[in-house]
Amino acid sequence: MHTPPIPAAAPRLDATDIAAAVRVLESGHLVQGPEVAAFENEFADLVDGRQCVAVNSGTSALWLTLLALGIGPGNEVIVPSFTFAATAAAVRLAGAVPVFADITPDTFCLDPDAVRAAITPRTTAVIPVHLFGHPAAMDELTAVAQRHHLALVEDAAQAHGATLAGRPASTFGTAGCFSFYPTKNMQSIEGGLITTADPALARTLRLLRNQGMERRYHHQIVGTNARMNDVNAAIARSQLRRLPALTERRRANATRLGERLTGLPGLTLPTAAEGVGHVWHQYTVRIGPGLGHRDTFAQNLNQAGIGTSIHYPIPLHRSPAYTTAADLPHTEAAAQQVLSLPVHPDLTGTQIDDVAHAVIALAHATERAA
After folding, report:
1. Three-class SS string for 125-140?
2. Phi, psi (degrees; rounded to nearest 5) at 52
3. Cα–Cα distance between 263 and 259 in angstroms, integer?
């Protein structure tokens, strides 16, 4: 398969990450040991001191949170359709029904008005996704959740270090869930984490991740094996130390790319709402009709050496696993138009300029051919 010279993402471990992993492998403390506890304590500093429970994936973080909240059969959970499948999958895995609501076209995040319209007597929770590194409208969503006595579970899998009015993502709701998959803003190869201000909920989550045990063979509840191992935790600790610098590089790259693409006809650039500390997990533009079909535009960029990604081409409510008759016009439009351009921290300024030049050249060529 052809790999563009400028890839859409560049997940990698540096020498400090590898050294951390080797140190743990040589120590003999491999599972749910001191590295996991240390990572949880250190990540707490990023989320205003909330309790942190590390698990084996972002999907597990969402699923266990719903289980810990007692959400299951007979319950409905409002989620966006324009997101990665894990958001809705966690609801199904818990035995509840995902109810899809529309997004706002500027942020790609859940629309509070759409959430209000989707509430029924069976609704027990809302899962807003801080998509592409931009926090959802948490002030409005918190008010909706409080008024209707709903749990608010933040899917912060793409929002490590993102803020809204100075508050970190994952600190508004009942709980917040992170992923440390290799393409995320920080990684641990695989891993996830739940944040909460509720000690009782944190205890239940720790029981659920570890076969229901606090002491070996003393099963308080029925649990599962969703533990983070110490090798993953050591890598995560190393990545966490570099997260501020990595985030600043993402922001600088996003700013530079935006400056060069501003005003290009047919191209809608992403923006950050007032008071938002965007962390640019993705730099996702919209390809308008004047630039031709989005998939063709992406293919031509790839041939020009610029890697792209489409997040997400099929809304969840249209996929075979979740097909519903939901009417979500902003979601449908986004799925047809979005294209993510390279913005990851490994890119140099020159490479960002190359991305911009390729987009501009292709746009002008498309315009001439029309």
Report:
1. EECCECHHHCCCCHHH
2. -125, 135
3. 9
Task: Compute the CA torsion angle 285, 286, 292, 293 (nearest 10 deg).
Answer: 100
Cβ contacts of 248 within 8 Å, gap of 6 or more: none
Instruction: Give the whole-angstrom CA distance, residue 300 versus residue 280.
Output: 24
Cβ count within 10 A of residue 249: 18
| CA-based radius of gyration for the chain | 21
pLDDT (0 to 100) of residue 283: 98
Question: By three-state DSSP, how is residue 213 classified?
Answer: strand
Which residues, in sequence order, are CB contacts of 182 under 8 Å at separation 6+? 11, 189
Amino acid identity of residue 219, one-letter, is H
pLDDT, one tens digit per residue, over 103-115 is 999 999 999 999 9
Quote the longest CA-to-CA distance of the chain.
Answer: 72
Residue 241's CB is within 10 A of a number of other CB atoms, namely 13
Amino acid residing at 67: L
Residue 3 to residue 262: CA distance in whole angstroms: 27
pLDDT at residue 3, as a whole number: 61
- Collapse the DSSP code of 105 into the 3-class scheme (helix H, G, I; strand E, B; otherwise coil) and give the result: coil
CB 115 within 8 A of CB 143: no
Who's near 159: CB < 8 A, 6+ residues apart? 130, 133, 134, 135, 169, 170, 178, 185, 279, 281
* 142 touches 128 (CB < 8 A): no
196: nearest Cα among 186, 208, 188: 208
Q: Which two tokens stand for residue 296?
A: 């063709």
Tokens of 266: 């047919």
Q: What is the pLDDT of residue 2?
A: 57
Crossing angle, helix 349-369 and helix 294-303, to 10 degrees?
Answer: 130
- Side chain identity at 154, as an amino acid letter? E
Look up residue 163 and give its DSSP letter: E
Contact at 8 Å (CB) between 192 and 178?
Answer: yes
